[in-house]
Amino acid sequence: MRTITGSRKLSVGLSLRDKLMLTVIYLILIATAVVVLYPVIWVILGSLNPGDTISSTTYLPEKLTFSHYINLFVEKDYLLWYKNTLFIAVMNMIIATILVVTAAYAFSRFRFPGRKQGLMVMLVLQMFPSFMGMIAIYILLLQMNLLDNHWGLILVYAGGSIPFGAWLVKGYFDGLPRSLEEAAKIDGASHTAIFFRIMIPLSVPMLTFIAVSNFIGPWMDFIFARLVLRSNDNKTLAIGLFEMVTGRANNEFTTFAAGAVLVAIPITILFLFLQKYIIEGLKAGANKG
Amino acid sequence: MGSPMSIIPAAREQRSVKTTISVTLSILFMGLGQIYNRQIAKGLLLALVELYVLIFWSKPVMNGLWGLITLGEQMQIRQRGRIIEQGDHSIFLMVEGIIYLLALLVMICFYIFNIGDAYKVRKGIEAGIPAHDAKQSIKHAWEQGYAYFLLIPAITFTLFLTILPLLFGILIAFTNYSGPNYLPPKHLVDWVGFKTFSNLFNLKAWSHTFYGVVSWTLLWAVLATVSTYFTGLFYALIINVKAVRFKRFWRTIYILPWAIPAFVTILIFRNFFNAQFGPLNEYLSLLGISAIPWLSDPFWAKVSLVFVNTWLGFPFWLALMSGVLTSIDKDMYEAAEVDGASPWQRFRTITFPLVLFATAPLLIMSFAGNLNNFNIIYLFTEGGPVNIDYSYAGSTDILISWIFKLTLQQNQFNTASVISILIFIIIAIFSIWNFRQTRAFKEEDMIQ
Fold it and tell me: Where in this chain does the record put each ABC transmembrane type-1 domain (chain A) (predicted)?
C-alpha cells in the first residue's frame, strides 16, 4: 500500500500528474469563463460603440460614447417601456403572491370538501401548454375591455401563476411545525392572526421565491405581452427590445445593446442576491413538497 | 330532549320521516328545508338566492347552452360587400356558453350544499343538537367556511383565466375553426368530432409536418436536457476538485448566464450568429474558414440552438450540483480510496449516483420544460429556416412554436388545439411518472 493519502492530506507537494491535471482544469475554467463572459462584454462594448450596426462594433473602438443610452431616452420610448414593465411586474408580484399564499394556506391547514379535487385540478392545470388558452383569453379580455391594457396583462400573469405557486407554497406550509399554531389557538388567536403572525414570518424564503419569480416573469415574457398589448404606449421592454433587432433593417443593434444592458443590470443583481432562494424554490417545485 | 337510548321505535321512524321531508323540501326549492328546520333567516336567504337566479339567470343560461351546442345558426349575410345581417359569432357564443355552463355548475354545487345542509341540521336536531340561530350560523359559516373564503380569489382567477380558456382550447379541437373558410364573424363554426385529429395523422400535408416536428421536438428535448445537465456536472466536478482555488469566484462567473435575463442573451446570440454581419463568421474568416450559414441552414441552426441553450442552461445545474457535491460525506471517498478505487470508479459508484438521485425530479421536469421551450426557439430562429416541405412550420420549429404560428399567424386554431392536447398528454405522462417517484401525494395526509 502506498501512503500517498497521508502526504496529500498534508499537501506537502503534488505529483507531476496532479499538477498537469490542475493546469488543464485551470485552462478549461479560463476558457469557459471567456465563453461565458464574451457575449456580455460584446454587448456592453456594442452599446458604447459609435455607429449603429453590429459590424460597426469593434473591440478596440477609437472612442466610447454614451449616445446610444441617451438615444434610448430621447428618441425611443425606453423610459415609458421601463415604467410599463416595472408597473406590471410590481402589481403582478403583489397580486400573484396574495393569491398564491391564501390558496396555499387554505389547502395546507384546512380539511374541507373538495380539497383533494382542488389540488388535483391544480396539478393537472400545470401540464397544459400555457398558451393553449390564448384565443379564449384574448376574447375574454376583449369582452371585458381589458385588451391593450396593463391590468389585462397583470390578470393573465397572476392567474397563470396560481396552480404552480399554490402547490409549491402548500408543500412548504405542510413542512412547518404545527405546534406553534396550536399554542396560538389555545391562546385564542383567530385563523387570520395565525396566518399573519405565524405562517407568513416562517415562510419568508418561499415567499421570496414566489415574489421574485412573479416579479421577474413580466420582464421576460413575450407571448402574452404581444397578445394583450397593442399600442406603442403600452409596450413592455421585452417587446420593445425584440422589435429593435428583429426588424428587417437590423440597424439599431447598438441602441438595442444599450437597452439590453439597462434591463440586464438590475435583474442580474436581483438574481445574484436571491440565488439561494431561487435554487431552493426550484428544487421544491420539482419535488412538490 | 331525552337521551338516544330512550327513543322508542315509533318516534325514531317519525324522525326519519321528518328528515326525508326536510330533504325533499330543499330539493323542491332551496331554503324550504331550512325553514322547515326552523332556520327561518337562512331559509329565506337561500330561497331568495334561488328566486334571483331563476328570474334573472335562467334565460341567459339557456341561451348560453344553446350557443354552446349549436355554435350559432344565423350566417352573416352580405350584399355587395355590405353587412346587412350581423349573424352569430360562433366563437363568442362558445366562450359565453362555457361561462354559463361553469356558472350553472357552481349553482348546482350550491344547490347540493343546500340539500346537504338541510339533511345535516335535521339529523342534528334528531340527535338533540338544536339548530343554530342566525347569529350562530354566521359564526359557524365563518369558522367552517374560512378555507373557502381564503380560496375565493384564487378560484375566481383560476376559473376564468385558466380553466375557462383551457376548456375553450380543448373544445376548439373538435370544431372546424380554421382559416380561410371557417372564421367568424364572416362564417359559422361547426362541431366536427375527431376529424381534426384524424386529419393530423392521415392527411399527408399535416402528417408529414407533424411527424417531422415531433421527432425534432423529442431530439431537441433530449439534447437540450442532456447537454446542460452534463455540462453543469462537469464544471461542478472540476470546480470541486480540492486543489482548485477561488471556487466562489468561478461559481459566480458561471452563474451569470442564468442570472442575465434569457431573452436578452438569446437576442444577443441571434446577432452574434448572424451569418452576414455577426462576429462569429468574422472570426472564422480570420482563421481561414469560410462563412457558415448558422441560422439559414437547418443543421447549423440546430447546432447553434443547442449551443446557446447549453450556455443558458448549464449554470442552473452547476449551482444545484455544487450544493449536492459539498454535502457528500468525505469519508466515503476516503474509504473508496483505501480500497483502491480509481477516480473514475469513485465517480461512477459514489458521486454520480448521489447527484443523480438528488437531481432526478428536476431532470425530468427540465426535460418536460425543454419540450415546451418556446422562448429560445422563437427568439433565436423564429422556427426558421423555412422548410418548404412543412405546412406552416420551419425546420427548427418544435411543437409549441408550431402551435404559436398556427394560432397567431395562420388561423389554424383547430389543428393547433389538437397538438396542444397531444402535448398535454406527453407532459402528463412525464409528470405523473415523476410524481409517483416523489412523495407528494403519498404523505399528503400525514400531518393532519
Answer: 82-274
Q: Considering only CA atoms, which of A111, A94, A115, A79 is closest in space to residue A157?
A: A94
Q: Distance (Å) from the C-alpha of residue B257 to the closest C-alpha of chain A?
A: 7
Mean pLDDT of A223-232: 84
Mean per-residue pLDDT for B231-235? 94
Q: Nearest by CB to A288, which of B238, B243, B438?
A: B438
- Residue A178 touches partner B, C-beta closer than 8 Å: yes
Q: Contacts of residue B120 in chain A, CB cutoff 8 Å?
A: none
Taking CA–CA distances from B153, the nearest residue in chain A reads A99
| A86, amino acid identity | L
Closest-CA distance of chain B to residue A80, Å: 18
Mean pLDDT of A115-127: 83
pLDDT for the residue numbered A250: 61
> Residues with Cβ < 8 Å from A126, sequence gap 6 or more?
A163, A164, A167, B431
Would you tell me which residues 243-302 of chain B have a C-beta closer than 8 angstroms to some C-beta of chain A? 243-244, 250, 252-265, 267-272, 274, 277-279
pTM, full prediction: 0.80
Does A153 score more than 80 pLDDT? yes
Task: State the pLDDT at residue B124.
Answer: 84
**Ramachandran angles phi, psi of B19, nearest 5°:** -60, -45
Chain B residues touching A98 at Cβ < 8 A: 153
Residues of chain A numbered 190-229 and touching chain B (CB < 8 Å): 191, 216, 219-220, 222-223, 227
- Taking 60 as the threshold, does the pLDDT of residue A289 lie above it? no
Domain locations in chain A as residue ranges: 20-65, 77-288
**pLDDT tens by residue, A48-105:** 887 766 665 566 666 778 888 888 888 888 889 989 999 999 999 999 999 999 999 9
Q: Which CATH superfamily is domain A77-288 in?
A: MetI-like (1.10.3720.10)
Residues of B in contact with A140 (CB under 8 A): 95, 160-161, 164-165
Search chain B and give the residue with CA nearest A14: B243
Instruction: Indicate if the pLDDT at residue A217 is higher than 60.
Output: yes
User: Mean pLDDT over all residues of chain B?
Assistant: 84
Helices B262-272 + A253-287 axis angle, to 10: 130
Q: Judge whether B197 is closer than 8 Å to chain A, CB to CB.
A: no
Residue (of B105, B26, B28) closest to B64 by Cα position: B105
Of all residues in chain B, the one with the smallest CA distance to A167 is B440
C-alpha span between B45 and B115 (Å, rounded): 14
CA distance, residue B389 to nearest chain A CA (Å): 25
Q: If you count residue pairs, one on A and one on B, with CB atoms under 8 Å apart, how many are there?
A: 255
What percent helix, strand, coil does chain B show, rounded to 5? 75, 5, 25
Contacts of B279 in chain A (CB under 8 A): 42, 54, 57
**How much is the pLDDT for B443?**
46
Percent of chain A's residues with pLDDT above 70: 88
Q: Model ipTM? A: 0.79
